[in-house]
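Consider the following input, taken from an annotated entry for Alcohol dehydrogenase-like C-terminal domain-containing protein (Rhododendron williamsianum).
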Amino acid sequence: MFYRYFPDGIDIYFDNVGTEMLEAAVANMNTFGRVAVCGVISEYTDAAKRAAPNMLEVVYKRITIRGFLAADHMNLFADFSSATADHLRKGRIHVLEDISQCVESIPAAFVGLFRVLQLALFLVRLLMPPLVWGELWLLDTLVFEKGDLVAGFISWGEYSIVKGANTLNKLDLMGFPLSYHVGILGLSGLTAYAGFFEVCKPKKGEKVFVSAASGSVGNLVGQYFPDGIDIYFDNVGAEMLEAAVANMNTFGRVAVCGVIAEYTDATKRAAPNMLEVVIKRITIRGFLAPDHMNLFPDFASTTADHLRKGEIHVLEDVSQGLESIPAAFTGLFRGDNIGKTIVQITDE
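Applying the prediction step yields:
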């Protein structure tokens, strides 16, 4: 149904309903779409109807989901009042009212708010092709000087032919091993840096929770953070996201860069309590590191400085040779690795 009315996708969704409506909106949303949640009518009286939007789409499309209450925006009241009054006078806005009379009618009017009409069941399937990529160090290219070290998204192999120098970047080793430049000084490191400082925007004294593994965690989150969470950096999704939202403080921020628990099992899809998202004015935002390449110089300089001072420790899981690729890749989905998974094809 969404596709019928919005064949080109949705950029903004103003949510009053939750459940299947929110799920369908996220599925049909364009890149950098925004969701403002001010109510979840379908979930007020039935927690079983809790929305479970596809968090993988939230990541890939860099969608922002933000709960809000009007009371936090009273500074806008003067402009709102003037603009709305003008639209009313010009007939651009039509008012719909359901008026009950007498004190005796109050219970019936109140209960009527919670009589939810049967919503259409939106069955939206989005075919997402797998993302296959490799970062290799290439030598002796036609564009760079012989012996230069470069990095880029290219195919697995001992040798690759790359068309266009714009797909490659010359490496400045800065005195660190090559492996660091596909891990802590590469895209993985930039993801952590941009997600934390640009998306979450931490403030002094705030409590930060970073997920690394899935499982039954609801009670653990509450034990580790008895005073609540201000920032949650999500790599897992599923129960971990639900537990984090449940234990989040007012105006909490969630940066979603991965949903490990949901990649191979859609039944584990997260269903955070959207009523808490509204009441606590929580912001949930998916992001991808390539959107923040403008931060790379600052990130590289800052991270290199922390490494030299021993303030950051590097964890790597290195396999040797092309023949180790299948085992290294499948091991990611079993949790075999500790730290960044790297396949070293040739000696440095």
